Amino acid sequence: MTHLLLIRHGVTDWNREGRFMGRTDLPLNLEGLAQAETAAASLRGQKLEAVYTSDLQRARQTAEIVARAVGAPVFPDARLREIDQGEWEGELFSVIRETYADLLARRRREPLDTHAPGGESVRQIQARILPLLDEIAQRHPRGRVAIVSHGVTLAVMKVHLLRLAVETVWDQVPDHLAIEELFLEAG
């Protein structure tokens, strides 16, 4: 059984501005860098075989800070990117709530196949991350690894690993720099 540490990246300017952020490749802001350093300090001295990360800057920066603290190699993987927000990308939450209230409510109730216009559904996220989880379990069958990724992507993992109803996915989005320990069985 693989021991996983799921870690959400630190904050960016868009997070603080209340914007929908998916694939836009923004770096951590100063607060996010400080958060990553604090999380890394809390892990210092722990043994990790690897740190897998989204290839987007905010996650990669967080992963590199954590990896330095624990002496583990970093493996960027595009499959760990955040949900594609489509036309909602970069828009303020308040604007989307007002303009797309019905679609947003339906996406919350029916996350598997409902998505932002031009965006990605939870089913599509599952299709890209579940094979990666299997690969990680095969590579580290009794190891301890970190996965540094994004809110919705990590929530989809949690729903899968904890065998929760997919409709709870939006309630599973972790806070920035939350570190959650879960276990992954091969196969």
What is the compact description of this entry?
This protein has 187 residues and is of the alpha/beta class.
Helices and strands in order, then pairings?
Blueprint: E1 2-8, H1 13-17, H2 30-43, E2 50-53, H3 57-70, E3 74-76, H4 93-99, H5 101-109, H6 122-139, E4 144-149, H7 151-161, E5 179-184
Parallel strand pairs: 1-4, 2-3, 2-4
Antiparallel strand pairs: 1-5
Keywords:
Rossmann fold, 187 residues, alpha/beta, globular, five-stranded mixed sheet, 5 strands, 42% helix, 7 helices
Question: What can you see in these coordinates?
Answer:
This protein has 187 residues and is an alpha/beta fold. The protein has one domain: Phosphoglycerate mutase-like (Rossmann fold). It contains 7 helices and 5 strands; from the N terminus they run βααβαβαααβαβ. Strands 3-2-4-1-5 form a 5-stranded mixed β-sheet. β2, α3 and β3 form a beta-alpha-beta unit. The termini are close together. 39% of the residues are buried.
